[in-house]
Structure formats: C-alpha cells, structure tokens
Amino acid sequence: MTQAAVSYQIRQLEDRLGRALFVREKGRVRLSETGQRLLPAIRAAFASMGDAFAALGDDEAEVLTINAAVTFGGTWLSARIGRFQLRYPDLAVRLSMSNDYVDFDASNVDVAIRIGRGGWPGLRADFLFRSHVTPICSPAFRDANRIAAPADLLRVERLAPNDGWWAGWLAEAGVDVAPPPRRGVVLDSQLQEASAVQGGYGIALMTPLLWRAELDSGRMVQPFDTLYQPGGANWLVYREGRSRVRKIERFREWLHEEMEKDRPLLPEALWRPLP
Question: How many Cβ atoms from other residues are within 10 Å of residue 205's Cβ?
C-alpha cells in the first residue's frame, strides 16, 4: 500500500472509533493515549494470525530453530540433539545459544530453553527441572588442597568467589561462617568454568546434571552431595499460538522423553515445578 492509502485507512479507523489514534505535530506522528492502549492487543492479534497461517503451511521448510541458555545448550542439549534429528530426518535443526531472553516477535526462533521463574506473557512454558549447583573441581585440585569437608572451601581458590550462591551453598552444607570477600576469576558460563576447572584452576559452582560425562569419567569430581537451589528453573518456551505446530510438538515430546531418562540422577524435589 502507498503512504496515502495507509493514511486514508487510519483516518477511516479514527472516524469509526471517534478518537484519534495518532498525534500529528510538526511533520511527525506518534501514538496517542488511545493508540498506546490498543497497541498490545492489536500486536498480539496480528501475531496470533501469523502463527495460525504458519501452522498451515510448510512452516519455514521444516527447520526447527532452537535458542538455548549457553551452558544447557553447550552441554546437555548439544550432546543429545543428534538423536532428535535421527528420529525426525525430515526436520533440519538450527541451534543458537545465548543467556539473553530471545524476542520471539523479532526473530525466527521456534523454541527456547530459558532459566527463570516462568510466567512469560504470550508464551507457553514447559517446566524441565529446577536450577541447582554444587562445587565441582578436578580430582588433582581436590587432592592437592585436601578438600574433605565443606568448610575447606573457604580457604581454596573459588571461581566467582563473591557470588552469593557460594554463601547459599555453604549454609546449605552446614557451614555457619560466611565466605569473606576476595579477589578472583569470574567467567561468563559453566562452559568456561569447566575448562578452568579441568585445567586444575579452582573449584566452581556447577550443575552436575549437565556434566555427567565429565563426572562419570573422573575428569571432574563432585566432592559433596549437597545441592543448592538458587530459586529458578529451566523451561522450554514457545509462543502460545504455535503449540500445535508439528516440529514444536515433536521437539517438546522428545525433550521430555530425554529428561525422563535423567530422572534417577537428581533428587525428586528438583523435578517438581516451582510453587
């Protein structure tokens, strides 16, 4: 449509409503208060129509685009995603990783793995497991520093030593003394921490579910059974209007099947949804 045609349609809509949707001043146009009130509902309606038509077609040539939190995507998911593609060879898979929440309206992402409390407007969120961490290090570091009790961690090199999660884990493990502030190394993700730990530098708070291969092989060790829950959880999220899209349905089913295989590895409480 031409600019003149758009302006004409807007004028007709304003005449029908009896209210101005835009404020026109000095050659510029901005939404009026009425327009701002209508925008969220109108945007959601167009998104819903787009989702409905997408579900009827080939849906982007059957490419499943996944965005995952960096650590989950780079460990657990990357190690298993090939199984999904082998089960559904007609589906191509594109995996990207970021700790930022993806904007489904401004991207072609179909599903995302997020960490948080859930309840995101316009999105369906399937609970996966509760977030949890515990100290993990190399066996050489454990032996060299004679780590035998939780309190021993107060005197050794800890990655992200001032992270509040350390105080939380130590308290959970029965250590009454809060860790004093100290300088140290802070890395962006558990992927980087794992490299440092396996290189013999320090001990890090990590999620044992994501590092089973390294723990089972002995490349890394978990000195204590105590798990600390920071309060969030891992979720599979996608737009509410796309829950019946075939590729999303198949991925959701497969992901829950794979999670169920790991159920014996964690206490049952970590598989219960957040209150």
Answer: 21
Better-predicted residue by pLDDT, 52 or 55: 52
Q: Which residues pair with 93 in a beta bridge?
A: 64
CA 210 to chain centre: 14
3-state secondary structure (DSSP) of residue 129:
strand
Q: Kindly state the tokens that stand for 166.
A: 């350390």
- For helices 246-261 and 78-87, what crossing angle results, to 10°? 130
Q: What per-residue confidence (pLDDT) applies to 3?
A: 78
Q: Is the pTM of this model over 0.85?
A: no
Alpha-carbon distance 125 to 140, whole Å?
A: 41
Kindly report which listed range (47-51, 196-200, 212-216) carries the lowest average pLDDT score. 47-51
CATH of 62-274 given 3.40.190.290, 1.10.260.40, 3.20.20.30, 2.130.10.10? 3.40.190.290
Beta bridge partners of 136: 204
Residue 87 and residue 254 in contact, taking contact as beta carbons nearer than 8 Å: yes
- In 3D space, the residue among 247, 263, 155 whose CA is nearest the CA of residue 202 turns out to be 155
Task: Return the ∠ at Cα 252 (arms to 134 and 254), rounded to 5°.
Answer: 80
Per-residue pLDDT, averaged over 218-236, amounts to: 97
Top CATH class of 3-55 equals mainly alpha
- Which band of pLDDT confidence, cut at 50, 70 and 90, is reported for residue 58? very low
Q: What DSSP string runs through 197-230?
A: HHTT--BEEE-GGGGHHHHHHTSSB------B--
Is the CB of residue 234 less than 8 Å from the CB of residue 128? yes
Q: Do residues 237 and 140 make contact, with C-beta atoms less than 8 angstroms apart?
A: no
